[in-house]
Amino acid sequence: MSEGITEGTATTGGETGTEVKFPAWMAQLPADYRQSADLAKFPTIGDLAKSYKETADQSKANQKTLENAIPRLNENPTKEEVDKYYTALGRPKSMEEYSFKDGDKDLVSPDMDKFARQTLFDAGVPQAEALKIVKSWNQFFSEVQNQQEGIKKQEWEEADKALRAKHGDKYDAVVKKAKRFFEDHSKSQFDSFVNETKIGMHPVFLTFITSLSEKYAEDSTMKGSESTGKNSGKFDPGNFYQVPKK
To answer: Which of 207, 198, 200, 194 is nearest to 161 (CA)?
Structure first.
């Protein structure tokens, strides 16, 4: 098509050829583009400009999406690449930025706080997922603890039942005697152990002390020492066996 022609047709491509109509505005283009079938799709130069604008806007949007996209790590990523990857996932910039609160309630105890923060941060866990993990852990731990308490309670009740069956109406007197014996003969180190572990509240411990006091009374070689009713002063009587209320 010569420069003097403002509009025309041409046959392009294929064995049979395809007739393409070239809009008049294409005469303004450099010679290399005047017979472009792709450009001929636009009836006016305004349509071409509109298409260009839409393409440019979409390109900018794609660029912004790529900037915010999660980068793919190679087999041997650097620390900087890993940090960038975890940041893109939503991990806080530092472990101190994690929040373990549910309203005003702290979900992590002070002694576990640093461990939880460091572990979750090193694993690249985002804030929202970190909170879910902490809540799930607390629920699991609570269920396990309740289960253990239930087992302990059942064991205590069975042992206490056996004690009552053994001593009958002398049960209360046996408990008082065992407690008095322990107060008389316990030592400071053992007192601390009983106070801290609450072992003195268990029926098995009472059975042991009862048996020990009976053996002590029977052994004539040990009767030279009278009971004083006093020990080292470290023992807390409240941590010794309490008569269960029925």
So the answer is: 207
Q: Tokens 């979900």 — which residue?
A: 107
DSSP label at residue 105:
E
In sign, the C-alpha dihedral spanning 27, 31, 34, 39 is negative
pLDDT of residue 214: 78
CA 178, 182, 187 angle in degrees (round to 5)? 170
Show the tokens assigned to 141: 């731990």
**186-194: Cβ within 8 A, 24+ apart:** 186/231, 186/232, 186/235, 187/231, 187/232, 188/232, 188/234, 191/231, 191/232, 191/234, 191/235, 191/236, 192/234, 194/235, 194/239, 194/240
Question: What token pair was written down for 131?
Answer: 């909170």
The closest alpha carbon to 112, from 134, 136, 93, 97, belongs to 134
pLDDT of residue 160: 84
d(CA 194, CA 240) in angstroms, rounded, equals 8
Q: Which residues does the chain have with pLDDT short of 70?
A: 1-17, 65-69, 187-189, 218-246
Please state the φ and ψ torsions of residue 73, each to the nearest 5 degrees: -85, 140
Question: CA dist 128 to 101, 106, 134, Å?
Answer: 11, 15, 10
Integer Cα distance of 104 and 107 in angstroms: 9
Rounded distance between C-alpha atoms, residue 138 and residue 135, angstroms: 5
Measured distance CA(115)–CA(110) in Å, rounded: 10
State the Cα–Cα distance between residues 210 and 175, nearest whole angstrom: 8
